[in-house]
Design a protein that fits this description.
This protein is an alpha+beta fold. It is built from six helices and four strands, in the order H-E-H-H-E-H-E-H-E-H. It is globular. Bound molecules: flavin mononucleotide. Flavin mononucleotide binds next to helix 3 and strand 3.
Length: 154
């Protein structure tokens, strides 16, 4: 199933098809305990403690947003790295939903600590964590803005 999820995520679009997003799986009990107890923000401890699996989403630096000659060609500069990781995360989460799994994207954690813990290659940086597993229940989604509030026709 893990490979199925990444097989979907790899089809997410990326800047100039640079394919810079990487996925590291933590699923051993001692890995998850260490992550939960020392490497994530307090609001995420209970999520990591209850998840059977965490994906660490990372990005190979200086690819997304960059041209082949090394210059940043758009006004958004390096922020396309976050965009690419975002669409890849969403694709992974939707694929997980399709398989009957639940996910939580998490953004508050000890980036340096987790990079060391998973022996992240020097040329990558961590973007997000995704907890994944079978959900105990299906909470009601928090409200969204109405379409009319966020859509403009000119
Ligand atoms: C970039 C990003 C970072 C997030 N970080 C966290 C987080 O650290 N902890 C958490 O519990 N949820 C996190 N979330 C989940 C959001 O809080 C959640 O998607 C939002 O409240 C809407 O709820 P819903 O996805 O259940 O509809 C994050 C979501 C995104 C997209």
């Amino acid at each position: 199933m893990i490979e199925q999820l990444i097989d979907c995520a790899r089809w997410a679009p990326s800047w100039n098809n640079c394919k810079a997003v990487r996925y590291t799986v933590l699923e051993k009990e001692e890995q998850l305990q260490k992550l939960a107890n020392t490497l994530v923000a307090s609001e995420n401890i209970h999520i990591v403690k209850n998840a059977p699996l965490i994906f660490v989403i990372s990005n190979v630096k200086k690819r997304s947003g960059y041209e082949r000659d090394g210059h940043l060609s758009s006004s958004k500069g390096e922020s396309w790295e976050m965009f690419d990781a975002g669409v890849a995360c969403q694709t992974l989460c939707l694929a997980a939903t399709e398989l009957g799994l639940g996910t939580v994207i998490m953004a508050t954690f000890d980036e340096e600590g987790i990079s060391k813990f998973i022996d992240l290659p020097e040329n990558e940086e961590i973007i997000a964590l995704i907890a994944c597993g079978y959900a105990d229940d299906m909470p009601k989604a928090p409200r969204r803005k109405e379409v009319a509030e966020i859509l403009r026709f000119l």
